[in-house]
Design brief:
Mean pLDDT of chain B: 78
Shape of chain B: elongated
Order of helices and strands of chain A: EEEHEHEHHHHHHHH
CATH superfamily of the largest domain in chain A: Dinitrogenase iron-molybdenum cofactor biosynthesis domain
Strand order of the largest sheet of chain A: 3-2-1-4-5
Number of strands of chain B: 0
Helix content of chain A: 55-70%
Low-confidence stretches of chain B: 176-187
Number of helices of chain A: 10
Largest interface: A-B, 85 and 88 residues
CATH architecture of the largest domain in chain A: 2-Layer Sandwich
Largest sheet of chain B: none
CATH class of the largest domain in chain A: Alpha Beta
Distance between the termini of chain B: 34 Å
Oligomer: heterodimer
Shape of chain A: elongated
Structural class of chain B: mainly alpha
Mean pLDDT of chain A: 82
Structural class of chain A: alpha/beta
Chain lengths: 266, 187
């Protein structure tokens, strides 16, 4: 059985860190094997969402319990939903706290100041969190969407339609390639690709080009390629993006052909 | 305290970043209005009509967003990924990719971590490919392209992600940090 302890240092002699989300280290202690792993907390930067990154890390480590000084309600809810026991109000050296937990002393000790949330509180908190999260997501999407729509308005008024039709010539192969290349160059929320694609379609671009753009927008990322290389390795990133570019073109071709078959369009 | 000040300064900078693009477009509008007020008015009207046509789908997007945020948790994605191989692993990676939200940059550290734990390249690539399927954005997509197109594209995107995922798995050597059966724990 593994437990996670927020810690000020990378060993068992370290003190339990007060805040779980921003603790410098999470010590993942395997009680049955009597081993531990010190993991630098990705949330230690204290940036927005830091606490949740620490929560995700702990869950990914398969821990069954979390010992810490303080853990926010949102994090507690995430742990509770994943069947993880949370003990807050814990302080002292990590090794003493782990020993106390192993012996069952923590369960009834004074350290247990953080009572688990009851079902109704969890549901209420879940709704509030969902509302906040949705509002945040929408607030992040909206400004970019407003900018894109305003830009489309400018394009439709100032750029002659002939120019667009000169770029997208009507050749399915070239249009698909161009659409996939455009999609690969842009990043951001895919809602923008739907709006741009929809307006391009209305302006006369082919569905091949638009579909390739939409698929490549998310699956291929030239702008985020350095980050993907750093995280996943050069070969993985290049092969995945290259194959995804080809796949975006393939998906575009097959989608349009099936659509024509289904709807009887030419 | 100094750290807090730096953090709050960073937060202050983040807000204008989100608004930078629309602000630049508005500046462009201002310049073009000075040059050609008539055409700029046409552009504004065109943008307004696009927004009006998007109101209902956007309202549905918000409702779907709320429902998904209520019933699907980011932490569940962690449980989906890197568990098992074969059809089950692929299916879980597909679901994980579809329900994952937020910018891709936030997911890279987790994917690296999962790879260290032994998650295969195929599963990670399948996860990344399925981020193209966004259930809460479907109303906007349907409003522009129709539901038949959306169904076909969604099915093909999932199928395509599986093809790309398994191809990546075949072409890229596994780089797990652990040998089979080795524990990451150490003392």
């Amino acid at each position: 059985m593994k437990i996670a302890v927020s810690a000020d240092g990378p060993d068992l002699e370290a003190s339990v860190a007060h805040a779980f989300g921003t603790a410098p280290y999470l010590l993942i202690v395997d009680l049955s094997r009597q081993t531990f792993e010190a993991v630098p907390n990705p949330g230690a930067t204290g940036q927005r969402g830091a606490g949740m990154r620490a929560v995700v890390l702990a869950i990914s480590k398969d821990v069954k319990a979390v010992l810490t000084g303080y853990c926010g309600p949102a994090a507690q809810r995430q742990f509770a939903e994943n069947g993880i026991d949370v003990r807050t109000g814990v302080s002292g050296k990590v090794k003493d706290v782990v020993d106390g937990y192993r012996k069952g002393e923590l369960e009834e000790g004074e350290a247990l100041t953080g009572a688990p949330l009851d079902g109704a509180a969890i549901r209420r908190d879940a709704l509030v969190q969902a509302l906040r999260r949705s509002a945040r997501q929408f607030a992040m999407i909206l400004p970019m969407l407003v900018g894109v729509v305003l830009l489309i308005g400018l394009f439709s008024a100032f750029v002659p339609q002939n120019l667009l039709l000169a770029v997208f010539s009507g050749n399915p192969l070239l249009d698909t390639l161009l659409g996939a290349c455009f999609g690969s160059l842009f990043a951001g929320n895919p809602i923008n690709s739907y709006v741009i694609g929809g307006e391009l379609l209305a302006a006369g671009a082919s569905l091949f080009a638009v579909t390739a753009l939409i698929v490549a927008w998310v699956t291929v990322g030239v702008i985020q390629l350095p980050a993907e290389i750093a995280a996943m390795g050069t070969r993985f990133a290049l092969v995945r993006n290259g194959l995804s570019l080809v796949m975006a073109m393939g998906i575009a071709a097959v989608t349009v052909l099936i659509l024509r078959l289904v709807s009887g369009l030419d | 305290m100094k750290g807090d000040e730096v953090q709050s300064a960073k937060r202050r900078i983040r807000v204008p970043r989100v608004l930078l693009f629309p602000a630049l477009v508005l500046v462009l509008y201002g310049i073009l209005f000075a040059v050609s007020p008539d055409k700029t008015g046409v552009a504004l009207n065109r943008s307004g009509s696009i927004f009006l046509s998007m109101l209902l789908p956007l309202a549905l997007v918000v409702l779907l967003m709320l429902a998904l945020n209520l019933f699907l948790k980011p932490s569940q994605v962690v449980r989906f990924l890197g568990r098992g191989a074969g059809i089950k692993g692929a299916a879980l990676s597909v679901v994980g990719g579809i329900i994952s939200t937020g910018p891709i940059y936030a997911w890279y550290p987790l994917l690296t971590e999962l790879r260290q734990k032994g998650a295969g390249n195929s599963m990670l690539a399948i996860f990344l490919g399925n981020r193209a399927v966004k259930p809460f954005l479907l109303p906007i997509m349907i409003s522009y392209f129709g539901w038949i197109y959306v169904v076909i594209l969604t099915v093909l995107t999932v199928a395509g992600s599986l093809a790309v995922g398994y191809s990546v798995g075949a072409l890229v050597r596994e780089q797990t940090g652990l040998r089979s059966g080795e524990s990451p724990a150490s003392e």
